[in-house]
Amino acid sequence: MVLEGLKKAWDVLVSPRYSAARNFYFRPITGWQSIEFAEADMTEAGTGRSVYVVLFKMNYSNGSGRYLEFITSNKDAFEREFRPYHEKTFGWEKLESMADYNKFGVTAADLRGKWTNDFSGSLSYVMPTPEQPPGRIRTLRIDGDDNIYVASSYEKIKDAVGTNFVTDSYYSIDRNSPSPKYDKTSVPRFNVVRKISGGMVSTLKTPDGKFNLPHAVSAMTTDSQGNIIYAAASFARFIGKIDLATGSFTSLAGQSYKRKWCPVYTQGDADKAEFVDPASAIISNKKGEILFTDIRINRIIKVAGGKVWTLAGNNIIDPCGQNMAGRSQEGNKDGKASTALFNSPQGMAYDSKGNLFIADMSNHVIRKLSPDGTVSTFAK
After folding, report:
1. What's the predicted TM-score (pTM) here?
2. Rounded to an integer, what distance in angstroms lies between the CA atom of residue 171 and that of residue 235?
3. Tell me: the pLDDT tens digits for 136-148?
4. Containing domain of residue 360, as a range?
5. The dihedral sign for the CA sequence 361, 363, 367, 372
């Protein structure tokens, strides 16, 4: 059974540090990405303090997984910060997004009991508190004037923000629709954009003082005028722009929030284009063109002149039945850009000669796309 791995993980990672367990449950969470959830009221062996513990696991399609342990004073505190247990995948995004928060190394010597490799994944511990909710820097960009822009979770300032913010209208329309792509009970994935310039840090706001909070930012760059260009991932699936002078949001490419599952890739007119997961990297070149990676379909995509087309990558896109969130077959092939194959392309950068370098993550290589349209392996 799937939950057997979770039970073994609990016995190794959690049980040795506690003397008692009450209200102990292992629960499955169903959906396109399998999630497992264990909970119990525990007593700390060293202090005798009563705490509520959750062991949360995300199971990935390649057979691996990631465990996160959450420790709060009681069950009510956990549910106020996150939500009560429910069986559907959606609504757990806030827990999933914490996979890279507050991480520290753990070895076998740190834990009592038998250490086994019967379960896989990374180990993270998170203790959220109302006084210091966790936050994470999502993406960073340095513009032509050496200003640094950072997009991070708005969790640490959400109480100060309140309702004094603006975001893209597409998210607001979807959220208030009869059938929103995001569950109405899910936590918004807002990002705050900060600017570091001349030794000073400021937060991006509109001229009338409202916080600019783009939603579901996965990558960010700037255009020649210094405006913020960003890729919105998850169900948003579009390329957006924040005008620094006015604070307004516009869509540059992609039909935002069009589909929940079974996304499709459509080229052509920018306002009619569709993406699968523009969630890795985005840059702009000297011509003002925008390039980004769609990691699930292993393509480098260009936006220019109101059009969208594939710059490089021709991996076969699998039918929705194989993955509701969309995917393509992995590959590693040099040659013409139109026939080249990638495997999770991530970061990108130009050199002075116009060569585009691509971090092909799961192939563990750096690829080069030359101005003549040839893809080659630059380093491995």
Report:
1. 0.67
2. 10
3. 676 888 888 889 9
4. 261-380
5. negative
